Amino acid sequence: MTIQKLWKKGFIGALAISMLAACSDSSSTSNEVNSDATLEEITEQAKQEGTVHSVGMPDTWANWVETWQELDSEYAIKHQDTDMSSAEELAKFEAEKDDATADIGDVGIAFGPIAKDKGLTLPYKTSYWDDIPEWAKDDEGHWIVGYTGTISFLTDINNVKNAPTSWEDLKNGDYHVSIGDALTANQAQFAILAAAMAFGGDESNIQPGIDFFAELAQQGRLQGDPSVANLEKGEIDVAILWDFNALGYRHQIDEKRFDVVIPSEGSVTSGYATIINKYAKNPYAAMLTREYILSDAGQENLAKGYARPIRENVKLSQQVQDLLLPAEMYKNAQPVNDQKQWEETTKQIPQMYQEQVLIHAK
């Protein structure tokens, strides 16, 4: 099993949603999509479509590969993915519209409401609606969180003698740190929020987090993309990643070479949500995919990829539980308290990061 990247509210209205969709990739038949259809009806239509195209859901992210394999083996639904950031997914949906090449995407929770506001999403509740916490679903089913992650430190102990266990350790170190592209990537933006929380800020005041990374940039310590390739080459000393990504990278490269911790002062926990493209050519396959992701099997697949299932009533085997970090590490981790405020803040991050952090990059 390999992991390359990782980490990203639902109620169905009674009315059917009309849109132009094809029965399959090779069909141009106009269909009326009823997102309030029964699961049996959705399953039958999905089998006829026979294909689902995703964005931001590659095999190596959160063990998506097993879910795609099982959708194929159980329902004969083939799959293709184009990996991209949350912002890029929304831009693709909006640019293509009726010429859609994507059916479903996985985005950071802050991007779910944006996709809904832009009119890009097809709502679907799934039969697991009541198992999903209120904070993790849109009232109309336009987006639903499938798994959660908490910002963590992944340290290459070949490069760093004393692995940091806190934000203060990271601040006082002399090693290189990477968070990736904070202009577009959800994971990087949450890393800024987590740092802000550690130094007295919150979702309405991320300045302490911006200041933290600006200081690293001024010291020439902020660099690189936290990809598996760069980590494997030893080019990054500490990567700030979702816990599931950090654990997955460690497993893929060398379990003994990397240390993974949740920073002790605190961190932020969030989720990734599926959004179904309003213009999807395979809308029923996309709905069935969401259904499967939230099933017991789909939730365990995500946990095998080190992501924490959104459904607390899912029973994980001890073997799978042992893949995750100890529960006590999460005692100071907290979710976003004001999601609406965070949505507004994320719009400000690109400019703030460009003007206050990247300007110092060496």
Task: Describe the overall structure.
The longest helix has 18 residues. Strands 3, 4, 5, 6, 7, 8, 9, 10, 11 and 12 form a 10-stranded mixed beta sheet that branches. The chain has a two-stranded antiparallel sheet with strand order 1-2. Strand 3, helix 2 and strand 4 form a beta-alpha-beta unit. The two termini are 36 Å apart. Helix 1 crosses helix 10 and helix 6 crosses helix 7. The N terminus is likely disordered. The chain has 362 residues and is an alpha/beta fold.
Key descriptive features of the protein:
single chain; alpha/beta; globular
Order of helices and strands: EEHEHEHEHEHEHHHEHEEHHEHEH
Write down the overall geometry.
Answer: globular
Largest sheet: 10 strands, mixed
Distance between the termini: 36 Å
Poorly predicted runs are 1-30
**Helix count, per DSSP?**
13
Quaternary class = single chain
What structural class do you assign from the helix and strand content? alpha/beta
Mean pLDDT: 90
Report the β-strand fraction as a percent range. Answer: 15-25%
How many individual β-strands? 12
Which bin fits the share of residues in helices? 25-40%
The radius of gyration is: 20 Å
Task: Give a nutshell description of this structure.
This protein has 13 helices and 12 strands.
